[in-house]
Amino acid sequence: MSLGSLRLRLLLGAAIFVLAALAISAAALTYLFERHVERWINAELASYIDQVIAGIDRAPDGAFTVLHPPSDPRFQRPLSGLYWQVNIEPDGPVLRSRSLWDFEIALPPEAAVGDELHEYELAGPDKQFLHLVQRRIELPGRLGRATARIAVAIDDATINAASRGFANAILPLLAVLALLLTAAAWAQVAIGLKPLTAIRRKLADIATGDTPRLGGKFPDEVLPLAHEIDRLLDARDRQIEKARTRAADLAHGLKTPLQLLSDDAERLAAKGEADLAADIESIAGTMRRHVDRELARARSGFNVANASANVSAVANRVVRVMERTPQGRHLGWIVDVPSGLVARIDAEDLTEALGNLVENAARHATTGVTVSAEVSEGYAILSVIDDGPGIPPARAAEALKRGGRLDSSGSAGLGLAIVGDIAEAWGATLSILSPENGCHITLRIPLARLPARNSA
Questions:
Q1: At CA 409, angle to CA 406 and CA 414, rounded to 5?
Q2: How do the domains of the chain map onto residue ranges?
């Protein structure tokens, strides 16, 4: 797929959205987990504060002490990451857990005595950064009603490690989720673009003649496009029909004056003006051939996708006409074309092409002309064979070139050029085989997949 592919653009957009959504989700989940861990730790630290407060008392020598500190062994292990500290106010001693060793936490001041806990982030021992919970209380009367700040702290690295562990645990799940969502996006794009693929296939079928129109079996979002294309195809067919009608009108309008010129040439020849008559006839013949060629181009300028012609019917009609002409009357004619053979070409264009080939064969044949057809690999191979002198192999290619014409000794006139134009318009090919005796010209036309529409 190229960068211009709509499918690729949709997939890239979906992939970027999925990755962004999962990244935001991962960050949000990690943040929520971290806040949950902090709340859980704050609850645990609060219970430690209650244990420290319950253990404050006086030693036998009257000094303040914590007789029953929290039982967590981390409070006894130096620099363990879990610490407690009691500051007796205003100038009393500072009591702290063994885990602090010789480090004293600089507890922030508290304005009021109460049950409310306050959270702080402070520097701790051994370059640790502590998450600390503190409460200011008033000691009971037996302890002199002094005030004290009781704090319990934990190394922030513990919270961070828990958050990292959670993030690492959800990464594989998010990766699997990304793959599943990307696959779902791929499937969604494929299903969503399926109607466009169907339109493309239908258009290909229209081009090959398998179907005349797109039809209406499409989703509501694509249906207006299909209808608009069908309307354009209808308009094109109407324009083609008008062009063909105008070409026919032009043919009648031009051929009548040319026929009059030929009649005038005959009268001049009868009066003894043979040279002048020959010149006029030559000019009229040249004009007639050019007119025929341009009219053939006009008729075949638009390829009607669903056109079709019965090859046998056209071949028999053309041969019957040629048999009544002065050139074809003395020749033997053989037509060997399967009756059910239908080619994808307009019947009038096939008649024009085959008529030129048969006329050319009759002009050069010695005793007879054969018109045959066979089917090969999806094509109708239409052959016109005569037993005349043929076209020299070295000049066969020249005769098929656009505008090509052989001299009078082996002339194919403009007939082959007209046939070549018609063949090109319908995706057919024209070729010349020149055996030792005669000429073999083939017209290779695609088969029609629809029943013959114009079989006459």
A1: 35
A2: 6-161, 209-302, 307-456
Q: Which residues contact 51 (CB under 8 A, 6 or more apart)?
A: 68, 69, 70, 71
Helix and strand numbers, DSSP H then E, in the chain: 8, 14
Beta strand 332-336 pairing with 368-376:
parallel
Specify the CATH number of the domain 307-456: 3.30.565.10
Whole-prediction pTM value? 0.50
- H runs (alpha helix) in 325-442: 347-364, 393-400, 415-425
4: helix, strand or coil? coil
Instruction: Give the helix, strand, coil percentages of the chain, each rounded to 5.
Output: 55, 20, 30
User: How would you write the pLDDT of the chain (456 residues) with one tens digit per residue?
Assistant: 566 778 888 888 888 988 899 999 988 998 899 889 989 999 999 999 999 999 999 888 888 999 889 989 999 999 999 999 999 988 889 999 999 998 999 999 988 888 889 999 999 998 999 999 999 999 898 888 889 999 999 999 988 888 888 888 888 998 999 899 888 988 888 888 888 888 888 888 777 666 778 887 888 788 888 888 888 888 888 887 787 777 767 766 776 777 777 778 788 888 888 888 788 877 877 777 667 666 666 655 555 556 789 999 999 999 999 898 888 888 999 999 998 899 988 888 899 889 889 988 888 888 999 999 999 888 999 999 998 877 766 666 666 664 444 443 334 445 677 788 888 888 889 988 765 567 888 999 998 865 444 444
- In the numeric block, the tokens 């190229």 are attached to 2
Can you tell me the distance from the alpha carbon of 40 to that of 46, in angstroms, rounded to the nearest whole number?
10
Amino acid at 84: W
Q: How many residues does the chain have?
A: 456
